[in-house]
Amino acid sequence: MPEGWQWDGTLFRGSAAHYERGRLPYAPGFAGAVAGALGWDGRGRVLDVGCGPGTVTLDLAPFFTEAVGLDPDEDMLGEAGRRADRLGVSGVRWVTGRAEDLPAGLGEFRAVVFAQSFHWTDRDRVAAAVFGMLAPGGAFVHVGDLKDPPAGATPLPLPVPPYEGIAELVRRHLGPVRRAGQGTLPHGTPGREDLVLARAGFEGFARLVVPAGQVVERTEDDVVSWVFSCSFSAPHLFGDRLGDFERDLRALLRRTSADGFAEHVPPTGVMTWRRPG
């Protein structure tokens, strides 16, 4: 868990409706690439911890008998259920709860996945719980965008969203220290998952990078949704000044480009550890 910060239920309040539109996708085919690397073949169960609106849960579901998505935010799980219905994905169930509630009577799994969510948890406690929930040889899977990816080969037809300007605008409205729920992150979020998982007894670290680089065009509304999908700029943080912030944000985006934006989909980085056996 981030130093100097305590979890509360407002971490992503109001963000669920913005996720699908605002967030860039993971690398196309990443779920199949991970399944191939780890030998997933349609048997067993997978647990996605901090599943949000089910993005990764639904991608992984075809490689297992059952997929379970766990998240403390009811709105996120509502979005996940609607997305599953829309995509016609079966064999998935959604459970309200925190990672710290594990094992929560959920049973044994072949894989437990954290997609950009492990850093929000009491990591030593959660890693120990996951170790006990995995079948021998089962995998702890950490999924995220690759940091500092190489420049995309395809030229962009439009400007990249002004991320530095957006960050400065958020600071102007919310203060210089990053917000998260009712607290702040004075020291950012923690890393060194390898040390945490070694303490829990995991072995056999492996890393997989799934390439991407496809060009995605983004409208002004898409970028606004990205901002509101983030914990540091979730809608509730602005209180009765939300309308003022959105007005300033849209003005910044229009000054940058009246015709929209474009980005390269970043590669997906996957780190895995095994329960011995």
UniProtKB/TrEMBL annotation:
**Which InterPro entries has this protein been placed in?**
Diverse_substrate_MTase, Methyltransf_25, SAM-dependent_MTases_sf
What biological processes does GO assign it?
A: methylation
Residue ranges occupied by any Methyltransferase domain in the UniProt entry: 46-138
Protein name as annotated: SAM-dependent methyltransferase
UniProt keywords (A-Z) are: Methyltransferase, Transferase
One Pfam family named in its UniProt record? Methyltransf_25
Q: Which PANTHER family would you find in this protein's record?
A: METHYLTRANSF_11 DOMAIN-CONTAINING PROTEIN, METHYLTRANSFERASE TYPE 11 DOMAIN-CONTAINING PROTEIN
Superkingdom, according to UniProt? Bacteria
**Molecular functions per Gene Ontology:** methyltransferase activity
Is Transferase among this UniProt entry's keywords? Answer: yes
